[in-house]
């Protein structure tokens, strides 16, 4: 399995706008709205590709049924997940399965979804979210990201 480094970290926050302002000022991060990925889970999402950070916060008014609320209540704001860029996500997933690591969720976007929601930045975007919180204190995601051009 070839690992091409860390793609981004995912940080759980309570206030998305405040956190975007903080990381924009600190890192010069430019954020893209990505709420379409988290809305079914009660999460609003902003991704900064240039800074390698994704911010996730409960949607205001939906805190009680938000998938992030238990994490925020137990641990507070902080690193939720580390996304590793791998050459082949399916091969990386097989290694995880061989180590008895379960998959929580998977995404494999079509080019139409990439163009609509990710500004057409990629020709391939596939992720496997692994259940590694108990082993390392945060989730691990194996992602295959092929940029256009």
Automatic annotation (TrEMBL):
| InterPro entries registered for this protein in UniProt | Glyas_Bleomycin-R_OHBP_Dase, VOC_core
Which SUPFAM superfamilies does its entry note?
Glyoxalase/Bleomycin resistance protein/Dihydroxybiphenyl dioxygenase
Ranges for domain VOC come to 5-145
Which superkingdom, per the lineage?
Bacteria
Keyword tags: Dioxygenase, Oxidoreductase
Q: Which Pfam families match?
A: Glyoxalase_4 (PF13669)
GO MF annotation list? dioxygenase activity
Q: What is this protein called?
A: Glyoxalase/bleomycin resistance protein/dioxygenase superfamily protein
The organism encoding this protein is: Simplicispira metamorpha
